[in-house]
Structures are given as structure tokens and as C-alpha cells.
Amino acid sequence: QKRYSNTDDGNKNWFYFIAERLYNTAHGFWLFTLNNLIYKYLF
């Protein structure tokens, strides 16, 4: 499943792809850490 086509602004699409990947990774890591802290202090 390819979300970004190879058009004139392929570079811009690539930038957004990288930014989205970084955001998703950071978001997942944050949720993971938050869950660990919650379980550590509640239970």
C-alpha cells in the first residue's frame, strides 16, 4: 500500500513520510513509557 506517489513534490512527500514515521515512533514510545509508569506506581 503506497500512500505517496512519485510526482514533482516527491521530496516533500518523502519529508512528510519520515516525519510521520518519527512521530508515530515517538508517540508509541511515549504511550509505552506512560503505561509502564502507571503500572509501576499503581500496582
Automatic annotation (TrEMBL):
This is Uncharacterized protein. It comes from marine sediment metagenome.
